[in-house]
Design brief:
The structure is a homodimer of 242-residue chains.
Chain A: H1 11-24, H2 37-44, H3 48-60, E1 64-67, E2 71-74, H4 80-83, E3 89-91, E4 100-110, H5 113-119, E5 126-136, E6 139-149, H6 168-176, E7 180-191, H7 194-200, E8 207-217, E9 222-230, E10 235-241
Helix pairs in contact in A: 1-3, 2-3
The first copy, chain A, binds a DNA duplex (19 and 19 nucleotides) through helix 3.
DNA sequence: AAGTGGTCTAGACCACCTT
DNA sequence: AGGTGGTCTAGACCACTTT
């Protein structure tokens, strides 16, 4: 292309940024296919190789899925791979687990100072707060509080506590167009408090693995705060660092 | 119908495998530069683009570092970025820490059944076992046991316990050509035992974050087992999932 | 000015999926 | 057979580092 640009940003980065914007805007809903490489490349006025580079980066970032012979689709949270993408809890023998969730409470409320800070919203803004227990093999092993900024999830409080699905990220994406692209987790060891002891049926002071999670969308906005306290008798948190 | 799958390995993957082999063999020691893309491409009889694809993958896997205008070098563990690559422990305010190590004991021994299993070596093979404490801000916060298969580190037992450097991976690489390319960590919460209590100056039963780490080299061989038990009063384990 | 990696192009062919 | 993404090539030009 002959457009003289004072920009330093490589062409494929510009294309990538544009694609992120269009995907975020819902131009291609989750699970649907983008136009082919050749078609997109022509629309953008770049070569197929340049466009491909943008698509490959978005694929590496789990935003797209490419199928040889079929096309390129916007990623969903439905596939098995995606389901376990953010779930680092495993059995100590290495086997994967699919926890069952049990809602304890769920309601809209004003954000606590800590929630405001973590979610990066103004103090006292309205949030939706869910408490739930997660069971593995019928035993309560996770005591969890999930907080959402209501601004990003209008009408979320009209969903009854008992109607919440097991996999929330799929709901966020399908109903609100909120795509969780990155989570940040901070772990430490804590002693079980009275609520933990009651809900998880462990003695007071029992060592729990605490996981504080922040979820970010494609543009880097914080979309969820999650505080999980886990009994790790038969479970462990598994991580790979390359 | 047992359809024999015709193995099709792309050219750039073959080149990549060959480069891994040559780097592992020490043909280009850590920190030194490889021949230029054009030179390597000609030697392999492939196009520059194909060779570049191999180099870029190795760069993504932190095995190489590419400098525009200068060349491509074998990565080391010296840079600040590399130093913190496997260190996920941070202060709770997010600040990085550089722990100081204090050797408690270090000696060769026969592998315990658990060590054999984790290191994937025959039962009773000789290992080198190091116990150490790690201090942050002068306070003992990590109680750690590190086990190495002596076969991979001949003569390691001749290093005195007090001569061990703070950053072991740099030593592995420089003295034994062992490049740690990937670590796998499994975390849980445990209660402090008598040894923990004494060394970390916490009450018996105090909640500790336990990190079991396996380190792998470029070819996927287990090269180190590390069992760390951490006081997380002012520290946390930080992780990002994409 | 020369050499390196980084971007971009255009075209060929291969592997895979669908019709 | 036709379309899709995956690999491979050859060449051009740009950005950066060194001489």
């Amino acid at each position: 292309m002959a457009a003289a640009k004072p920009k330093f940003l490589p062409l494929y980065q510009q294309v990538k940024a544009s694609l992120i914007k269009r995907i975020s805007a819902g131009e291609w809903p989750p699970g649907t296919f983008l136009p082919s490489e050749t078609a997109l490349a022509e629309k953008y006025g770049v070569s197929q190789g340049t466009l491909r580079k943008a698509l490959i980066e978005l694929t590496n970032e789990r935003c797209l899925v490419r199928y040889q012979g079929k096309g390129t689709a916007v990623a969903t949270f439905e596939s098995d791979q995606a389901l376990f993408r953010f779930l680092r809890i495993r059995r100590k023998d290495g086997k994967k687990v699919q926890p069952v969730s049990l809602a304890v409470s769920a309601r809209a409320d004003a954000a606590t100072p800590e929630e405001s800070k973590e979610l990066r919203i103004a103090n006292g803004k309205r949030v939706y707060r869910m408490e739930r227990i997660r069971l593995i093999d019928g035993r309560a092993v996770v005591n969890e509080v999930i907080t959402l900024p209501l601004e990003l999830f209008p009408g979320f409080d009209s969903i009854g506590p008992s109607n919440l699905p097991n996999t929330l990220y799929d709901l966020y994406q399908k109903s609100y167009g909120v795509i969780v692209a990155l989570v940040e987790e901070r772990l430490d060891a804590v002693a079980a408090d009275a609520a933990d002891a009651k809900r998880l049926k462990v003695p007071l002071g029992y060592p729990l693995l605490r996981i504080l999670r922040l979820a970010f969308d494609l543009k880097g906005t914080v979309v969820e705060l999650r505080d999980s306290r886990c009994v790790t008798d038969s479970l462990e948190y598994s991580n790979e660092i390359r």
